[in-house]
Amino acid sequence: MTVLVTGGAGYIGSHMVLALLDAGEEVVVIDNLSTGFDWVLPPEVELVVGDMGDQALVEGVIRRRGVDAIAHFAAKIVVPESVADPLGYYLNNTVKSRALIEAAVRAGVAHFIFSSTAAVYGEPAVVPVPEDLPLSPVSPYGRSKLMTEWMLADAAYAHGLRYVVLRYFNVAGADPQGRAGQSTPNATHLIKVAAQTALGDRPRMEVFGTDYPTADGSCVRDYIQVSDLAAAHLSALAHLRKGGESLTLNCGYGRGYSVLEVIEVVKRVSGVDFEVRISPRRPGDPAQIVAKADRIRERLGWRPHYDDLEAIVAQALAWERSLKQRNLR
Ligand code: UFG
Fold first, then answer.
1. Gap between the Cα atoms of 92 and 267, Å rounded
2. 85-98 pLDDT per residue, tens
3. 106-131: per-residue pLDDT in tens?
4. Strand pairing class (220-221; 257-258)
């Protein structure tokens, strides 16, 4: 039995590949390398460079490698970019996911794990956010992911596929063994930006808004460590292989940190008091998103191991240093 990981050369996908290998699984990756890197994959992993929406390619890989489960990470993920290029996002995240799901059904793949997002909740009316809150994404990115959730549910009902949808909150940190991390150049994510600023790669960083209705006025997010998230996928895989029912689950720790708190932690862990500017709000940022995080524990028995912002920041800094040393930025 082999697991097909789409987007396996990307940030979260590469941690999934490592988690699968550590668990003794056979893995094949399909990645078009638009934002991923082949060098992050261990040599024993087969990388098929191509498009996860190419059904002939995908079906060929499924049959040749005996794939029983697909973990679908490949996606465009930048919210403001999705506002500027909605059709590109619907093509990549929705239309190609439809093609992938159809290829899975045709080739008889029984299990599907899908990377969804807290962005499906939009501006949540309730915090912490439970999975059964009415969904009202406010960006093309969130809508492109929600449509795939719907397609999966409908295809599962019609064709007997079983799936786990994982709605990620803010993913951060790096492999504790230093084998992978967030490598995307020009990444916009808070902890990556703060780590780069601490290491002198950016002269300063900005805080987008301190006038939100939160304790210190900056936005609050639930940061989940990337290897913990990969482990949640392994638990989902085990659940599906045992015959478990389809599930939709939040992936977060259920604890929020403000942007200013995160920056303080990065300053403390790095020992660098870098310059921070207060800027206007960034369009589309909800004030506060924190997961209601019990269901994944109850349903999958998943437990986090790295629920510690200082450790997450230390991993992000270590990965940034290693990219610098290897001249991979
Ligand atoms: N921020 C700054 N300065 C920066 C970068 C970020 O102040 O240089 C702030 C943002 O304004 C936001 C917070 O830090 O308030 C977190 O921003 P990120 O860009 O790290 O993450 P987002 O919360 O915007 O995005 C995450 C996921 C998306 C998902 C979204 C759902 O990365 O994939 O949550 O709301 F869609």
1. 37
2. 999 999 999 999 99
3. 999 999 999 999 999 999 989 999 99
4. antiparallel
Share of the chain above pLDDT 70, in %: 99
Mean pLDDT of 305-321: 97
Q: Name the closest-CA residue to atom 31, ligand 1.
A: 119
Q: Which of 89, 141, 168, 253 is catalytic?
A: 141
Residue at 280: amino acid letter:
P
Which DSSP letter does residue 224 get?
E
Condensed to tens digits (0 to 9), the pLDDT of residues 72-87 reads 999 999 998 999 999 9
The DSSP call for residue 161 is: -
141 part of the active site = yes
Correct CATH for 190-221+254-325 of 3.90.1150.10, 3.90.25.10, 3.30.230.10, 3.40.250.10: 3.90.25.10
- Ligand 1 atom showing the smallest separation from residue 262 Cα: 14
Strand partners, 279: 208
Q: Where are the domains of the chain?
A: 2-169+224-251, 190-221+254-325
Q: Running DSSP on this structure, what letter comes out for residue 16?
A: H
Mutate which of 220, 282, 290, 309 to test ligand 1's pocket (most atoms within 8 Å of Cβ)? 282
One-letter amino acid for residue 191 of the chain = I
Q: Which helix (H) or strand (E) covers residue 12, if one does?
A: helix 11-22
Pick one of 3.30.70.2860, 3.40.50.720, 3.40.50.1110, 3.30.565.10 as the CATH number of 2-169+224-251. 3.40.50.720
Atom of ligand 1 nearest to the CA of 172: 20
Tokens of 321: 């240093």
Pairing of strands 67-72, 46-49: unpaired
10 Å CB burial of residue 271 (0-12, 13-18, 19+) is exposed
